[in-house]
Write a structure and sequence with these properties.
Elements (H helix, E strand, L loop, with lengths): L8 E3 L7 H9 L3 E4 L11 E9 L6 H12 L6 E5 L4 E7 L2 E8 L2 H12 L1
Parallel strand pairs: 1-2, 2-3, 3-4
Antiparallel strand pairs: 5-6
Length: about 120
């Protein structure tokens, strides 16, 4: 049995600022991956959207409204991905090292937040 090759989504990079480069990248891509900096682009075949919001942190009304606005403007999306990068509300880099700050969530709280956010 032949191994099935994975499909690759190409992020919309800064190269897309050059129209010719964009067309070459699109021609070689299965689909495009939007990021927040490119969410208002109109290139074809935008099926994946990666949003830099942590799924496991508490989302408030402003975050939900922001996400709803973005997602509603892209009705062809097939997949949305989020971050799951930390266990606290804040973050600091001190001497090049990550330091947790703000409210620290327990494992169960992170799971609960993710479940609520997915709703």
């Amino acid at each position: 049995m032949a191994k099935k090759m994975p499909l690759i989504a190409t992020p919309i990079p800064h190269f897309f600022e050059n129209h010719e480069h964009a067309l070459q990248i699109i021609a070689a891509s299965v689909c495009l991956e939007l990021r927040e900096r490119s969410w208002d682009s109109v290139w074809p075949n935008q099926l994946l959207f990666h949003i830099d919001k942590d799924l496991t942190l508490k989302w408030y009304d402003d975050t939900r409204a922001y996400l709803e606005k973005i997602i509603n403007q892209k009705p062809d999306l097939e997949l949305v991905t989020f971050q799951a990068t930390r266990c606290c509300e804040g973050e600091r880099i001190i001497d090049g090292q990550y330091q947790a700050s703000g409210k620290i969530y327990s494992r169960q709280q992170l799971l609960d937040n993710a479940g609520e956010n997915l709703q």
